[in-house]
Amino acid sequence: MSFTSFHFYVFLIALVILLRLLRHNGQKKMLLLLASYWFYMSWDWRFGALLFAMTAVNFYCGRLMRYSARPKIWLAVSLLFSLGVLGLFKYFNFFLTNLDAVASMLGMSSHINILHIILPVGISFYTFQALSYTIDIYRRQLDPVESLADFALFVSFFPQLVAGPIVRASYFLPQLAQHIPADNAAQQEGVMLIIRGLIKKVLLADVLALHLVDPAFADYANQSSAFLVLALIGYSFQVYLDFSAYTDIARGCARLLGYQLPVNFNRPYLADSISNFWQRWHISMSSFFRDYLYHGLGGSKHGNVYINLVLTFVAIGVWHGAGWNFLLYGLCHGVLVAFERYMRNYGWFGRQTGWRWALAVLRTFFLVCLLRVMFRAEDLYHAGGYLQAIWHNTALSFHLTAAGAVALLVAVILHLIPQHYIALWQQRYLTTPQLLQASVIVLLLYSMLMLGSGEAPFIYFQF
Amino acid sequence: MAKDSQIGKTLLLALLLFVLMEFVLQVRAQLKFGNSILNAAFADSAQAVSLFVQHDGYQLLVPNIEFAGSSIKVQSNQLGLRSAAIEPKTNGTARVIALGASSTYGAYAATNDDTFPAILQRISTGMPLQVINAGIPGNDIGSQYLLYAGQLAGLSEDVLILYSGLSNDIGRLCQRSSSAKSYALPQLQAPKWLLSVDLLLKNSTNLRYVPYKYSPMPDLSPYLQQYAASLRQIVELAQQRQVKTILLAENLRSFRSEQPLQLQQQLAASALYYTPCLTVGQFSEVFEQYNRVQQQVAAEFTGVHYVSLSEQVPGGSEYFTDSVHFSAKGEQAIAAALAQVLKNTQQVAP
Question: CA dist A256 to A13, A20, A179, B73, Å?
Answer without folding.
Answer: 9, 11, 12, 49
